[in-house]
Design brief:
4 strands; four-stranded antiparallel beta sheet; 101 residues; single chain; 23% strand; 3 helices
Length: 101
């Protein structure tokens, strides 16, 4: 379906980004924006989708009708952080504690 296709493209972008940018020392890295423009034109991928992967990382989990992250999922961000848990309308859903007085 659409979600599987989206995740496949997202994963391909992430792996290319990881190889071209994240795996290299900062001084040897290509400019992200330049890399994204080149990747978009060479792979016929929407530039906005590439920007989303760069900014939001890669995600595995449920998506809503607007293709936003929703429900249980796992996101890995470009800074190395990993979040596993609930998403709602594309954002991490943090649990709030009740304080009893």
């Amino acid at each position: 379906g659409i979600n599987a296709e989206y995740m496949g493209v997202e994963y391909a972008i992430w792996k290319a980004y990881e190889e071209a940018i994240l795996s290299k020392p900062e001084d040897d890295r290509e400019e992200e924006e330049e890399w994204a423009d080149t990747y978009a034109s060479e792979n016929s991928v929407d530039r906005n989708r590439i920007t989303a992967v760069i900014k939001l990382g890669i995600y595995s989990g449920g998506r809503d009708q607007f293709n936003q992250r929703t429900g249980e999922g796992k996101a890995t961000y470009s800074n190395g952080d990993v979040y596993e848990g609930q998403f709602w309308e594309g954002k991490k859903k943090k649990k709030k504690k009740k304080v009893l007085c």
